[in-house]
Design goal:
It is elongated, with a radius of gyration of 24 Å. It is an alpha/beta fold and about 400 residues long. Strands 5-4-3-6-7 form a five-stranded mixed β-sheet, with helices on both faces. It has a five-stranded mixed β-sheet with strand order 10-9-8-11-12, with helices on both faces. It contains 15 helices and twelve strands. It has helices at about 15-20, 30-35, 40-50, 115-130, 160-165, 170-175, 185-195, 255-260, 260-270, 275-285, 290-315, 330-340, 345-350, 365-375, 380-389; strands at about 55-60, 70-75, 80-85, 90-95, 100-110, 140-145, 180-185, 205-210, 210-220, 220, 315-320, 350-355. It starts with 12 loop residues before the first helix and ends with a helix. It is about 40% helix and about 20% strand.
């Protein structure tokens, strides 16, 4: 197809693919009616998508004397995206098709003494191994969620303690020769949550796990802040810190009294042992007195900080994710106690505080959705077509 135009002003091949993905069109005639493109222009765009493997066209139904009707469908097996949800204590990675369906995945722990380069390298190595078991297919992109603020432009970590200024995008781009999109884990989850409930234009996604963070959707848009550090509630100073040291190197951070790592330390100080934060949360949910008290107190501490966010941002909902959400009832009791005590009645009169439901995307699904939004954007599809012409 060298020498033929990739698109004419108006509706490009990438736009046509978007219509097919959304099931807004089923046939070439549908495309012509919806877009106003001529039959020749429709044929050009469809043939480009068929050649790239991003669409299929098959005869369906009985013929009425002429050519049998053919239906266009998006072909999610034309390529894959890679997803890496890198946490403070464990990492999940997956290979997904272009519809975001997980084809293969694995999970592994992140050692507490592991530096950022090692954790990111391990994620890339696991993705390599997963790819080896998949049919040969192009990697369209890599979506990465990390547990600390990220400069959304450079892909560099902003927290020295968590990421050591590692160039995350550079590492994954060099390894997989594909576009990379990186964001904070809570931002990725907030975007996914908003996509599920687009009518809620103002929500806070609270991740209460080994660390603490908030993803902010305000006015229907993710708020990253000037340097990508919006929502870093874990390192707000609190009066109950009692001089405790935080993982960030400072003292009296909210994390020192309410993050998962701090709760595990306090549980151990009580002479109790458990296999990890999920197990501690399960004990609290089952009514274990020590675990229950720790989780409820954590909810109170987080709630006092979240009250300021509620007064400032007036969200319609606070969605709770993370390992501590396994003990949602005691955690939310503490949250509500402090939020309703310290926030204005106007800001809390219709506020919903709830756990993510069973249909909510996992971290890796959210990472896959994030990169798919980029690599299947019409402009990206048109650029891919141009590169193969």
């Amino acid at each position: 197809m060298t020498g033929r135009p990739m698109a004419t002003p108006g509706v490009s091949a990438g736009d046509v693919l978007g219509l097919i993905r959304a099931d807004a069109v089923a046939t070439r005639s549908d495309i012509a009616r919806q877009t106003g493109l001529s039959r020749t222009a429709v044929t050009l765009r469809v043939e480009q998508l068929l050649a790239l493997g991003l669409a299929t066209e098959r005869a369906e139904g009985a013929s009425t004397g002429g050519r049998p009707p053919s239906r266009l469908r998006f072909a999610p097996n034309a390529g894959v995206v890679l997803a890496a949800s890198i946490g403070a204590s464990r990492t999940q990675v997956a290979v997904c098709d272009l519809a975001g369906e997980v084809l293969a995945q694995t999970e592994f722990p992140v050692p507490t003494d592991s530096d950022a380069s090692a954790a990111l390298g391990a994620a890339a190595d696991h993705l390599d191994r997963l790819l080896m078991d998949q049919p040969t297919t192009p990697v369209y992109g890599v979506g990465v969620g990390v547990p600390s603020p990220v400069d959304a432009v450079s892909g560099h970590g902003l927290s020295p303690a968590a990421l050591d200024e590692t160039a995350i995008s550079h590492l994954f781009r060099n390894r997989f020769n594909a576009p990379v999109r990186v964001d904070t884990d809570v931002n990725v989850l907030a975007l996914a949550e908003h996509a599920r409930r687009p009518e809620v234009n103002d929500l806070l996604l609270l991740k209460a796990s080994t660390g603490l963070g908030v993803g902010i959707i305000a006015g229907g848009r993710l708020q990253r802040g000037a340097w990508g550090a919006a929502g870093e509630i874990g390192h707000i100073k609190v009066s109950g810190g009692a001089g405790r040291s935080c993982r960030c190197g400072d003292t009296d951070c909210l994390e020192t009294v309410a993050a998962g790592w701090a709760l595990l330390d306090r549980f151990t100080a009580l002479g109790r042992t458990t296999s990890g934060l999920p197990a501690l949360a399960d004990l609290a949910a089952a009514g274990d007195p020590d675990a229950l008290r720790l989780v409820r107190d954590a909810g109170r501490s987080i709630g006092e900080v979240m009250a300021a966010a509620v007064n400032l941002l007036n969200p319609a909902a606070i969605i709770v994710r993370g390992d501590l959400s396994r003990a949602f009832t005691p955690l939310a009791a503490g949250l509500r106690e402090q939020i309703y005590r310290h926030s204005s009645a106007l800001n809390t009169r219709a506020l919903h505080i709830e756990p993510a439901d069973a249909e909510a995307p996992t971290g890796i699904q959210a990472c896959a959705a994030m990169i798919l939004d980029e690599v299947l954007d019409p402009a990206a599809i048109n650029a891919r077509l141009a590169s193969t012409a």
